[in-house]
Amino acid sequence: MTTMNKRLELQSILEEVLGSDHVFFQPPESIRLTYPCVVYHRESGSSRFADNKMYSFEYRYQILYIDRNPDSDFPIRLLERLPKCRYDRHYAVDNLNHEAFTLYF
User: Fold this and answer.
1) What's the per-residue H, E or C state across the chain?
2) Which of 19, 36, 83, 101 would be a feasible disulfide site paired with 63, CB 3.0-4.6 Å?
3) CB 89 within 8 A of CB 75
4) CA 94 – CA 7 distance, rounded (Å)
5) 32-65: buried (b, 16+ CB within 10 Å) or exposed (e) per residue?
6) The domain 3-104: what is its CATH number?
7) Among candidates 59, 67, 58, 57, which has minimal Cα distance to 97?
8) Cα(55)–Cα(53) distance, integer angstroms
9) Domain limits of the chain?
10) Which residues touch 3 (CB under 8 Å, ≥6 apart)?
11) Beta partners for 70?
């Protein structure tokens, strides 16, 4: 599967978990976000080696869920759907709740 197809698969999963198409990959600053939404970007990756050859590689993504509701069940739904996802932290800015995750996909 190509990198683009894999990312589009992730996009589809995030839209499914969110229940809307307010999912943005590396959005430009000019885009106006509608809440709740998910913003994600690629950070790095993880390679596994055997016999001096790479046999697997997964990109690492930073996923940010933004919502006015501090009690959303989105974090639980995301963690249940994506087993290689880790909840990192919660913070609030301008009355918006941010839930940050790290995902290998």
Assistant:
1) CCHHHHHHHHHHHHHHHHCCCCEEECCCCCCCCCCCEEEEEEEEEEEEEECCEEEEEEEEEEEEEEECCCCCCHHHHHHHHCCCEEEEEEEEECCEEEEEEEEEC
2) 101
3) no
4) 30
5) eeeebbbbbeeeeeeeeeeeeeeeeeebebebeb
6) 3.30.2000.30
7) 67
8) 6
9) 3-104
10) 59
11) none
34/87 Cα distance (integer angstroms): 22
Q: pLDDT tens for the chain, 105 residues: list them.
A: 677 799 999 999 999 999 999 999 999 999 999 999 999 999 987 777 777 887 777 899 999 999 999 999 999 999 999 999 999 999 999 999 999 999 999
Q: Scanning the structure block, which residue is given the tokens 């839930």? A: 99
